[in-house]
Amino acid sequence: MSNELIDDSEPAALDILRNHLMAVLAVKLDAGLLEGSGTPPEPTGLKNVSGKQTAAIGANGATPTLDSIADGIALLEAVNVPRERMRIVMHPRNVAALRKAKASTAGSYLWSADPAVSSPTSIWGVPVFSTPQLGIAETQGSSSVTNSIYIYDVDNVIYVNRQDIVIELDRSRLFNSDQSELRAKLRGDLISPNPTAIVRLTGALP
Predict the structure, then answer these.
(1) Which of 22, 36, 172, 182 is in Cβ range 3.0-4.6 Å of 32 for a Cys bridge?
(2) What is the pTM of this model?
(3) What is the phi/psi pair of residue 37, to 5°?
(4) DSSP 46-91
(5) DSSP 32
(6) What are the structural domain ranges in the chain?
(7) Which CATH number is associated with domain 3-204?
């Protein structure tokens, strides 16, 4: 970025870029905590926590149903996780599928009987969070366009904040061209004292 732009812009280009970098890092952190490989610099996301419980929604992928979520909740209940500590994370396309689920072809909606009312934020009392940071190119049997849904115990999924977001401006390295560089970084990781308190439902299709 040119120093002229930094010094003369209104609104300040530097402030706009700082805000953008913070937003990008937040998205990157979400993706890492969900699906990070654990190989530096990525944290170990829920997808790669060793010892978690796993169940397939369908052998070759399938559209998730309320029954799929019920099965995942039951797996946590089987290891003594109380319902109030459970959370569900799924892709927006899975939320859309559940919104459209009906009792029959012409029947009423199951998740919310009245579409005029705002969409429910929980399933059987378990809060639901939607994020597009879940990959949709996982392979389940013959399908290679599936994603995972996660149901977990908040007491056993712990974010360790090693360093808050730091944004640094450096005017030195590009001194000869009258330019500056901006760098953003943060450090964090995820730990799970009891991995069986995490359930990964694989093979979710739209």
Answers:
(1) 36
(2) 0.87
(3) -75, -20
(4) GGG-TT-EEEES-TT-B---HHHHHHHHHHHHTTT--GGGEEEEE-
(5) H
(6) 3-204
(7) 3.30.2320.10
